[in-house]
Amino acid sequence: MHLQESGEMYLETILILSKTSDRVRSVDVGEYMGYSKPSVSRAIGLLKNGGYVNVSGDGHLYLTKAGAEVAEKIYERHRILTKVLVALGVDEETATEDACKIEHDISDVSFEAIKKHINKFS
Fold first, then answer.
1. Could you tell me where the DSSP H helices lie in the chain?
2. Is the dihedral of CA 88, 95, 6, 77 positive or negative?
3. Distance between CA 80 and CA 86 in Å, rounded?
4. Residue 1 pLDDT grade (very low, low, confident, very high; cuts 50, 70, 90)
């Protein structure tokens, strides 16, 4: 199953929320992303059917191995692209917003080149 940008965003959100809580629920994802309960429910259903998310009996969300791999990839891109933009003089808020847009479209080749370049200075 090929993930759309929105699916990647949901996985990244579950990952981010799971870093501060062992129990991530759909309502938490909706609040974090600013989405309605029906939208989140539909998306989680698609991610579950695609093998990216498991939902426990009490409604807690867990990333599968495949889901965690996608989420970690997107989250790493977000962090590094934000860092690059800030280093270029972009304010933190704009850098974060722009990184969120870029992280889904940039090729693996270009991202790895950026990552290699930024790591020279870290």
1. 5-18, 26-33, 37-49, 65-87, 92-102, 108-119
2. positive
3. 10
4. low
Locate 38 and state its tokens.
């029906």
CA distance 25 to 32: 11
H or E element that contains 25: strand 24-25
The answer to whether residues 106 and 53 touch, using CB atoms and an 8 Å cutoff, is no
Residue type, 66: A
pTM of the model: 0.90
Q: Give the model confidence (pLDDT) of 63-81 as tens digits.
A: 999 999 999 999 999 999 9
In angstroms, the CA 122 to CA 45 distance is 40
Domains, the chain, ordered by start: 5-67 (1.10.10.10), 70-119 (1.10.60.10)
Q: Which residue has the tokens 């933190």?
A: 92
